[in-house]
Structure formats: structure tokens, C-alpha cells
Design goal:
325 residues, D-Maltodextrin-Binding Protein, domain 2, 2 domains, globular
Length: 325
């Protein structure tokens, strides 16, 4: 009996030691600069959002938070950089929706298995897309775009990021549901596509609203609609696509992940600290100015959200035909 009690005491002591070590890891994290790998270019809308967040986290943690922009190949270059990164507990991954929703379906030979090798931490924000028309079209509303496209099937073009990106998927989904044919013209980023829309060489562009604030303010382009289910509270004059195409809903989003195996207490700490940052009124105001909206989630909720989004978009990705062998 004495040996039995001794065994239990040892087990309890070991469990307590393990718990204290885990708690100490979370409390002392980060112990050095944190790197955040992104698949978008510096100056892009997601990059701007990321820098708002990481600046605040740096202040909160007392450590530098460095953004490493690795754009290209539909998010593959960033994922390759992540796979090559040291698993030191101080490297995070902040992908946009395209990297998690489209890339795993379109590429069968990724350097990381997103579900197995990565641990969801939180959702940073949601970004509905905007449909913006060239002034050369002479239209002012989305119904007018639909009517014009039906008169000129296949003649109107739309710019979006690379083939298979979520803006591209949004354009294809909208075209199909509106019963029109728009010709896709891929661009490496919104700024390059916008130049051709301004010049009248491309009819329409689809991307995050933040990319078009300046040309909209100067009336250089015509905003037609937002792809969220309803109008945005801070842009009430911009109609939702849902008002023309019933039930339409397409939103980009930015999430935060770490390597699988990151201690749960560290994951919870980053989630809680991110929540603290996102609840700062100034941060929320800056987000909303950029048409980005906070949506708090636990790590488990974030994982489920990502899986649900992957399933919802899979049929569209397959229909567009960007599946790799």
C-alpha cells in the first residue's frame, strides 16, 4: 500500500512539474523576435492589416515582430519558406484565404500538409471583395454591368489576382450566378490590375476594397458592389452583390497559424493577445477604414472555420479547372 501511495505521489508530482513547465513556456514566450511569413507583397491590403497587428503585438510582447513577405505562385513560395523555417516556436504564418482554401486543392505536392503540419491560432479579420468598374464602360451599377455583359458575351474582362485566387473564384462564381461571361485577366497584384482598369484596357477589377480607396475618392473608377451578404456599415452607399444576385456571399480573410506541436498554452496566449490587440478602438477603426472586420475565434473555432471554407469553395475551384495533377 505504501508503494502504491508513493507511485501516485510521484505521478502527481510529475504532472505538476509538466504543467508548471508548460505555463512557464507561455509566460516567457516570446523570448526573442517573432517572424511572421506572409504570401502577399509589401504594401498590399493584407500586408497593411498585418503591420497594424504586428506593431501592436510587438509593443505587447516587448519583442520585434518581423513580417517576411514571400509573394508568388499562389502562396506556394510562402509555404516553401515556412517549410524551410526553423521550428523554434517563434515563426508564425499569416496567410490569406486563397493560400488555405485554394492552394491545397490546386497543388498536390505542397511542402507542408496544412491540416497535419500547422496549428490554427486565430482569425485576424474578414475582407469582403469589391467589384470596381472602369469609367470607360459608362456604367454606374452592378445591374448595368450584368446587362452590358449579356449584350457583349465574353467581351468584357475582369482583373484579379492569379488564376485560382479567391478574387478569381469570386469573379467566376459571380459570372456563373449572374448568367454572364466575363473574361478573366490575371495580375500579380491589385495595383497592376488597377492601372489597366484606369486606362480602360480592362473592364472590371475584383479585390479587397482597401486597394481602391484612392481612385474611388478621386472618381477615377466606379465602385459597383461589395461581395459581403449585406452593405458595410461604414460604406452604406455601396450595394451588396446580394441585392442583384440573391444569396451571393464571398469574403476573403486573414488567419494566423503556427507549426503543429506548438505548446497549447503558447497558442492560447497568442490567441488572447491578438484578441487584446484587435479590441483596441484605434485598431478597429483602422481596420474598418480598410473594409476589414474583426471576428474573434478560438483556435478550435478557427480550425473548423478554415475546413468549412475549404469545403464550400472546393466545387468552384474544381469547376474553374485549376486542379494540378
Amino acid at each position: 500500500m505504501a508503494g502504491f501511495r508513493l507511485g501516485w505521489r510521484i505521478a502527481i508530482a510529475l504532472a505538476a512539474t509538466a504543467l508548471s513547465v508548460t505555463m512557464a513556456q507561455a509566460q516567457s514566450w516570446p523570448s526573442r523576435p517573432v517572424k511572421v511569413i506572409m504570401a502577399t507583397a509589401a504594401g498590399s491590403a493584407p500586408d497593411v492589416i498585418a503591420r497594424i497587428v504586428t506593431d501592436r503585438l510587438s509593443q505587447l510582447w516587448g519583442q520585434q515582430v518581423l513580417i517576411l513577405n514571400r509573394p508568388g505562385a499562389g502562396g506556394l513560395i510562402a509555404l516553401q519558406a515556412l517549410a524551410a523555417a526553423e521550428r523554434d516556436g517563434h515563426t508564425l504564418y499569416m496567410p490569406t484565404s486563397s493560400s488555405l482554401v485554394v492552394l491545397p486543392v490546386t497543388n498536390s505536392n505542397l511542402p507542408l500538409n496544412i491540416e497535419r503540419d500547422l496549428a490554427p491560432i486565430a482569425l485576424v479579420g474578414e475582407q469582403p471583395f469589391a467589384i470596381i468598374a472602369s469609367n470607360s464602360l459608362g456604367i454606374s451599377t452592378l445591374p448595368e454591368l450584368v446587362a452590358l455583359a449579356k449584350k457583349k458575351p465574353g467581351e468584357l474582362t475582369y482583373a484579379a489576382n492569379f488564376r485560382g485566387s479567391l478574387p478569381n473564384m469570386t469573379g467566376e462564381s459571380f459570372s456563373e450566378r449572374a448568367g454572364i461571361s466575363l473574361t478573366f485577366v490575371p495580375y500579380p497584384g491589385a495595383s497592376q490590375g488597377l492601372q489597366d482598369v484606369l486606362g480602360g484596357r480592362v473592364s472590371v477589377i475584383i479585390d479587397g476594397l482597401a486597394a481602391f480607396m484612392s481612385p474611388i475618392a478621386s472618381n477615377a473608377v466606379k465602385p459597383l458592389a461589395i461581395t459581403s451578404p449585406k452593405r458595410l456599415p461604414n460604406y452604406p452607399d455601396l450595394p451588396a452583390v446580394n441585392e442583384t444576385v440573391a444569396g451571393f456571399d464571398s469574403r476573403g480573410w486573414i488567419s494566423l497559424l503556427s507549426f503543429a506541436g506548438t505548446p497549447d498554452d503558447v497558442v492560447r496566449k497568442v490567441n488572447a493577445d491578438l484578441r487584446t490587440v484587435l479590441d483596441v478602438p484605434e485598431v478597429r477603426q483602422r481596420f474598418e477604414t480598410l473594409a476589414t472586420y474583426v471576428r474573434h475565434m478560438t483556435p478550435a473555432e478557427t480550425g473548423k472555420f478554415i475546413r468549412d471554407e475549404q469545403e464550400a469553395w472546393r466545387p468552384v475551384v474544381k469547376k474553374v479547372g485549376v486542379i494540378s495533377p
